[in-house]
Fold this protein.
Amino acid sequence: MLFSKKVSVGVLVMSLSVLLFVVSHALGQDCTGAKDWKDIYILPTNPHPQSNIKVSLSVDKQRVRPNDNIILTFHADRECYLTIMDVGTSGRILRLWPNDISGTDNRCPANTQMCFPAPQDGFRYRIAGPEGTERIIAYATAEKGKILSDQEFRSFQGSRFREFSGNPKDLAITFESRASSLSPSTPWGTAQINLCISEPRRELPRTDRDPRSQPLIPPVPQPRPLTEPSSKMCVLALGVPTGNLKFSVRDAQMFLEALRGKMGVQESNVRRVFGSEATYDGFVNGIDWLASRTQPEDTAVVYFSGHGSSIPDQPPLDEEDGRDECFVLHHTEKPGDWRQALDKKVLLVDDEFNVLMKRIPARKKIIVADCCHSGTINKEMGIEVDGFVSKYYPLRDPDTKEEMWAFKSVSKPTSYGNDHEALLSACLDNELSYENKRLEGSVFTYFLVQAINRGAPDLETAFSRAKQHVLEYVREGVRRNPNKMSSQTPQLTDPHGLAKLLQFRR
């Protein structure tokens, strides 16, 4: 990264993106996909919608060449104190804003577009190269100096900028710890963009540099290449055979066996929560176990097989279709209505699940949900039809005492709002998923495990193959029972391509 004064002033020499060429050239071949945890999201996002500061961070160009000038544009939806940092390919983390040139007051008025460098700053923001992925991260807090203090940034090479005194993993761990200690009502938010730095095929000698210009900051010494730290996969598997379901525990065991065989997952990194142990407390304790076992570079997998349900949207009201999806947990007495189910902790609502997932430091999180998210078919779905058993759990309306079926649920990919998660769902949120007696398991899990064991190179491919089999298998059941069954469409929500990164042994 270079900062250059305007032409009449001179050139400011500063390079953060410094790696040996062999390494950086390899990185530069494809900057679009996530290659490690740092390319996904270094900072976590605020899981509480009511206190989340929405930060918009953009750049005038994301694919750049060395010596290109760029301008960052940013704003927030409420007044806050905003910090912007550059994470170079060397691992150095420079605080771009605030700084001693632009000013140390990083107050950002609500809904006011700002830029870095600002026209009055008198310098340009120039990319130094070599090839690689440069990460620009921002965080905003309602109170100045919250989460990270000014003392955690040291002077950078005698310049008027400062750098974080640690590497990206240190930053991720520190930020996660500080943010999780905040009250849910404390406003904060994050944003990140990645720059793809690509060298031109032939670089011509530079002739535009003013020989009278003086370097204002000495060049950063070229560091040795960084190696990716060893990482591990930890798996939480839940099998909850409530109601008429018989094979949920077997589903979870089959999925675990596939991952252990094809990923080499160690037994010490597996937590099983089956049957009567799969209560609300059992689920929360399992998430806490994942949080204690993982670091930012690790992968956390949560697998759930059991009933799903749908209830009216609970505060914060954030669902377009007015419904919250839920995991149904172990219980001995069927609750009378959905309010009682919440009180008795029979349900884990998607909003709360999202908050729990944010406790996990691992930057790669994969959720496999083999349950229904809502129902659009008649009440007969609670019984077995031609070997199929619906995994939807109907709850009564506390006012009408009628069983609720979400006829108006919007058909859209399920998303728990986490910006670095992949969700493999057994069906759309207005569909049912099924367990099948002939398969001795849930239809989606059966075909997903089959695809993994039969040589799918990665989880994305395994999902794609499983989806086709599920569509065909359930379609045949619908053909035989058109008034009692509905289609099942597995859905992959994966904005960062994590499922493709999870590759299996041959």
In short: Confidence is low (pLDDT under 50) at residues 2-29, 203-228, 376-381, 407-418. The first helix runs from residue 21 to 28. Residues 233-501 form a domain with the Rossmann fold fold (CATH 3.40.50.1460).
